[in-house]
């Protein structure tokens, strides 16, 4: 039996279109003022144009006031190519019209350029706000193209799994007069943002932060929590440099560097530490200037996180010889290594009076 065709959209009432749209759409504001928008199907231009006012009033305006946005495409396995500009345009941070993709359609042997909309109903999502796109191994078709375009625009942090790497538009074709059908891609992306032969088809979209799909939202929220803390971290670092750094003449350059750092790629504490150390040491020409993450014992996750307590400062010398020898052995490590190399280690300085007696 041939696949049944969906009823023509032009025959549906506005209420039926809204009901169909809501089945594939979910939105809410999460803790930390993070907007969450889950889209399971990308509607086409016909639906988008008819329901723009409804979407802006009932969905988008509720998300506009959030501090960051999570776009969840983990369950989006398809959609309409003509709907791509509507999604991209609301997340496009610039005011100019942008050519985001060119689509080749095999049956008609034609190409169609896709541009962002000249203007959107309502407002674009703020360029200074973080956007995270969630993907899974099921994310396919139009959703993949949207994730790839946004990633090439350097707009979101993509979190989750590599996408399926399917086709933009799939058609089910009967093989002769048999009961067998063949599903084939009939449209393809020629390269988002004019990237030539670079495309996601066949290989999928690689996330910026790889994690199992079921953990992607939790990971995204952790990243956003870290990114919310970045301004305060930079401010405290600037204060520490002003107050304590001994190479005073280099402090203004360091403060300028911190104020102008691009932290858009930071998604973990390790990323932040690496970026800070690389930049600060280059500006100061001082390898001793080091930023570290110090965790308290309460947040330690296991024995591997525990650090050895430094030995206490020795302030007085015991009277008996055995105790003195034990004290020396606890403070100093002495050995002769292969090649007749002497090795002396001590982790703390004792008082001069103590050293004199010992």
From TrEMBL:
* Tail specific protease domain: residues covered: 13-212
CDD domains reported for this sequence:
Peptidase_S41_IRBP
Q: Which SUPFAM superfamilies match?
A: ClpP/crotonase
GO BP, sorted A to Z: proteolysis
Identify the SMART domains for this entry.
TSPc
Q: Does the keyword Lipid biosynthesis apply?
A: no
Tell me what this protein is called. Interphotoreceptor retinoid-binding protein
Q: Which InterPro entries match?
A: ClpP/crotonase-like_dom_sf (IPR029045), Tail-specific_protease (IPR005151)
Question: What highest taxon heads this organism's lineage?
Answer: Eukaryota
Q: Which UniProt keywords apply?
A: Receptor
Positions of the UniProt region annotated as Disordered: 296-318
The UniProt entry's GO CC annotations, sorted and at most eight, read: cone matrix sheath
Its source organism is: Balaenoptera acutorostrata
A Gene Ontology MF term for this entry?
retinol binding
């Amino acid at each position: 039996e041939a696949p049944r065709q969906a009823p023509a959209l032009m025959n549906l009432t506005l209420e039926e279109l809204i009901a169909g749209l809501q089945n594939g759409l979910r939105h809410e504001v999460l803790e930390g003022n993070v907007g969450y928008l889950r889209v399971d199907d990308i509607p086409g231009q016909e639906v988008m144009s008819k329901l723009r006012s409804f979407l802006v009033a009932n969905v988008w305006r509720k998300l506009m006031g959030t501090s960051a946005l999570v776009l969840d495409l983990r369950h989006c396995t398809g959609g309409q190519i003509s709907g791509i500009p509507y999604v991209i345009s609301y997340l496009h941070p610039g005011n100019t019209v942008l050519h985001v993709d060119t689509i080749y359609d095999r049956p008609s042997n034609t190409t169609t350029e896709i541009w962002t909309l000249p203007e959107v109903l309502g407002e674009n999502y703020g360029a200074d706000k973080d956007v995270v796109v969630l993907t899974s191994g099921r994310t396919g078709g139009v959703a993949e193209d949207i994730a790839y375009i946004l990633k090439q625009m350097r707009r979101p942090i993509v979190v989750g799994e590599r996408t399926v790497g399917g086709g933009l538009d799939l058609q089910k074709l009967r093989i002769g007069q048999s009961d067998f059908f063949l599903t084939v891609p009939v449209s393809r992306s020629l390269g988002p943002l004019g990237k030539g032969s670079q495309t996601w088809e066949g290989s999928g979209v690689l996330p910026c932060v790889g994690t199992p799909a079921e953990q992607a939202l939790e990971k995204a929220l952790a990243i956003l929590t870290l990114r919310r803390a970045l301004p305060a971290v930079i401010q405290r670092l600037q204060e520490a440099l002003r107050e304590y750094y001994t190479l005073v003449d280099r402090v203004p350059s360091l403060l300028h560097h911190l104020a102008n750092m691009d932290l858009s790629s930071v998604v973990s504490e390790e990323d932040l530490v690496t970026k800070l150390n690389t930049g600060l040491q280059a500006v100061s020409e001082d390898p001793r200037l080091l930023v570290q993450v110090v965790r308290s014992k309460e947040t330690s996750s296991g024995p591997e996180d525990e650090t050895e307590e430094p030995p206490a400062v020795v302030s007085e010398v015991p009277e008996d010889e055995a105790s003195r020898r034990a004290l020396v052995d606890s403070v100093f490590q002495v050995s002769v290594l292969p090649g007749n190399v002497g090795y002396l280690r001590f982790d703390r300085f004792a008082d001069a009076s103590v050293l004199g007696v010992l």
